[in-house]
Amino acid sequence: MWIYLIKRLLILIPTLLGVLTLTFLITQFVPGGPVEQALAQIDGESARTGTDAAGSSGGWGYAGREGVDDKQVEQLRTAYGFDKPLHERYVQMLGSYLRFDLGESYFRNQKVIELIQEKLIVSVSLGVWTFLFTYLISVPLGVAKAVRAGTPFDLITSILILIGYAIPGFVLGVLLIVLFGGGSFWDVFPLRGLTSSDWDELSLAGKVGDYLWHVALPVTAAVVSSFAMKTLLTKNTFLEEIRRQYVLTARAKGLSERQVLWKHVFRNALLPLVTGFPATFIAAFFTGSLLIETLFSLDGLGLLSFESINTRDYPVVLGTLYLFTLIGLLTKLVGDIAYVLVDPRIKYEAHEV
Q: Tell me, what DSSP letter sits at residue 287?
């Protein structure tokens, strides 16, 4: 097991390096970089003040910046580090990331790590609740469907699950806003932020209630379309295990159905759920968070990443990608360890040559 973990950690390094290298190269050659963005802002300010600073309508590319002093352009290139050779910037980036120094945002005048820490609370709130509810709903429901396979309960819940799975989280979010967010029917839930403006004046119970009141709609929109596959996976896994010989033997020994189900079947059926743990964890935190955060006006990591891509804020883009990739790889490794803890019979060394 330890040999396998060491190998996985060693593989993690080139994987992370490959992701960073590819993204770095793309950001260096994509049009409309940070210098062009700054020139576009100068162009916009000049248009408002009536001065002639830049003749380019969009500010994309140095060739179109009529009226902009070459010295000013060079100052911008130096400020953003583009005066250095490509390989030097790449090595400098890797050295900084080894120290977890993610640099400073081009346009927010703030360190990237501080920006991530500020936005993290929103993404963690959505991610933790989505992840917990996905498993708390899908596992018991999947077990109930397996035990009642073929009954009206199984049929009705399958239809509801498939309907929920077919509706994207963003579309469901719009529907929830229309119904319960003051859109056209009932104004029950707030649509901005995680807390109310009078948060500091509330009691402890009031703060908990206010927070849950704010996250109810976004978490519902994120959960409904995410637990369907886990539910069906749980059901099919339990059905397969229930038909095995050891279950018949346990019943023949006089064990109750509850003991057979939760003491014997559940542990073996848990393996596929554990293997899907990392993917569900990452999806809950990062996949789809942009649309949910935008829809409900939640200033989290998804929205930060999207805005940074639009403004070509490369330190933020690369810094968030670095952390997301690192967390994803480590979570996958944790999933493999949990796989062994659930079933000690699994030996990774057995597959080594």
A: T
Tens of pLDDT, residues 130-168: 888 888 888 889 888 988 888 999 999 999 888 888 888
More confident call, 222 vs 267: 222
Handedness of CA 258, 259, 262, 266 (dihedral sign): negative
Query: How many Å apart are CA 135 and CA 166, to the nearest integer?
Result: 19
| Residues near 319 by beta carbon (within 8 Å), at least 6 away in sequence | 102, 103, 112, 113, 116
| CA–CA–CA angle 44, 45, 46 (5° rounding) | 90
Cα–Cα nearest to 327, from 1, 16, 83, 110: 16
DSSP H/E element including 207: helix 204-224
| DSSP class of 350 | G
Nearest to residue 133, comparing CAs of 234, 219, 193, 236? 219
Q: What is the mean pLDDT of residues 48-57?
A: 43
pLDDT at res. 279: 66
What mean pLDDT comes out for the span 44-71? 48
Nearest to 347 by CA among 45, 40, 339: 339
Please answer whether residues 312 and 37 qualify as being in contact, where contact means their C-beta atoms are separated by less than 8 angstroms. Answer: yes
Q: Are 230 and 280 in contact (CB under 8 A)?
A: yes
What are the CB-based long-range contacts (under 8 Å, 24+) for 38-45?
38/76, 39/65, 39/68, 39/73, 39/76, 42/68
